[in-house]
């Protein structure tokens, strides 16, 4: 009985804790227009799908000749799964603004 109560308390703490505060590293970038999300750093690489304006991307893991290797933070408007890694031309991205709501 005590174990069940402890488990319920732990589960409730996780469910109601809410997200942690946003950090500058977690803000990432957003697509400024519709652009291809590619398998490599250049327009000659295969498109993994389209990013739409407002799709959120993580902080770049690598930068090469104006192309950034990054990942999708959420499922994109065109259906690319969250966490997918690919390359996008940096000029089509803008830094996201982070806010912490109390």
Instruction: Please name the fourth-level CATH homologous superfamily of the domain at 28-95.
Output: SH3 Domains
Classified by CATH, the class of the domain at 28-95 is Mainly Beta
Q: Structural class, please?
A: alpha+beta
**What proportion strand?**
25-35%
The major pleated sheet works out as: 3 strands, antiparallel
The strands making up the biggest β-sheet line up spatially as 4-1-8
Number of strands: 8
pLDDT < 50 stretches = 5-25
Description:
It is a single chain. The protein is an alpha+beta fold and 102 residues long. It has a domain at 28-95: SH3 type barrels. 20% of the residues lie in helices and 29% in strands. The chain contains two helices and eight strands, in the order H-H-E-E-E-E-E-E-E-E. The chain has helices spanning 2-17, 24-27, and strands spanning 29-31, 35-38, 47-51, 56-57, 62-64, 67-71, 85-89, 93-95. It has a three-stranded antiparallel beta sheet, with no helix packed on it. Strands 5-6-7 form a three-stranded antiparallel beta sheet, with no helix packed on it. The longest helix has 16 residues, at 2-17. The radius of gyration is 18 Å and the shape is globular. Residues 5-25 have low confidence and may be disordered.
Keywords for this entry:
102 residues, alpha+beta, SH3 type barrels, 3-stranded antiparallel β-sheet, 8 strands
